[in-house]
């Protein structure tokens, strides 16, 4: 499987709240700016398939709004519950644009959030 870089937003236009959720190449992606830098994860809780982007980000971790599981943005590691880690994606700034690298193959059902 190969991956491709996609431009998301100008770095200067990144939301003040420190996160942006978008869909890129079929993947739901959450990009967050923490004290440690920019990070991107699959926007799907591994427990109940909810969008984690609707949760708050504190101390470099995003909290699932459904049940409170916390995931480190830098590594995707679950630190507040016994759930599978989130998939992470490389993120970079090129020419003032924030870019994320996602697989060219669309996500399967186990990596797609339930969106109502």
Account of the 3D structure:
Pfam families: Rieske_2. Residues 6-100 form the Rieske domain. InterPro entries: Rieske-like_NirD, Rieske_2Fe-2S, Rieske_2Fe-2S_sf. 32% of the residues are buried. The protein contains no helices and ten strands. The protein has 116 residues and is mainly beta. The strands form three sheets. The chain has a four-stranded antiparallel β-sheet, with no helix packed on it. A three-stranded antiparallel β-sheet has the order 1-10-9, with no helix packed on it. Strands 5-6-7 form a three-stranded antiparallel β-sheet, with no helix packed on it. 0% of the residues lie in helices and 42% in strands. It is globular, with a radius of gyration of 13 Å. The chain has strands at 3-10, 19-24, 27-34, 37-42, 57-58, 61-63, 70-72, 88-89, 91-94, 97-103.
State the share of residues found in helices, binned by percent: under 10%
Number of extended strands: 10
- Judged by helices, strands and strand pairing, the structural class is mainly beta
Q: Uncertain regions: pLDDT < 50 for 5+ in a row?
A: none
N to C succession of SSEs: EEEEEEEEEE
**What Rg, in angstroms, do the CA atoms define?**
13 Å
**Biggest β-sheet strands, sense, barrel:** 4 strands, antiparallel
| Shape, per Cα inertia axes | globular
Number of helices: 0
Protein name: Rieske (2Fe-2S) protein
Organism: Novosphingobium jiangmenense
Keywords: 2Fe-2S, Iron, Iron-sulfur, Metal-binding, Nitrate assimilation, Oxidoreductase
Domain Rieske: 6-100
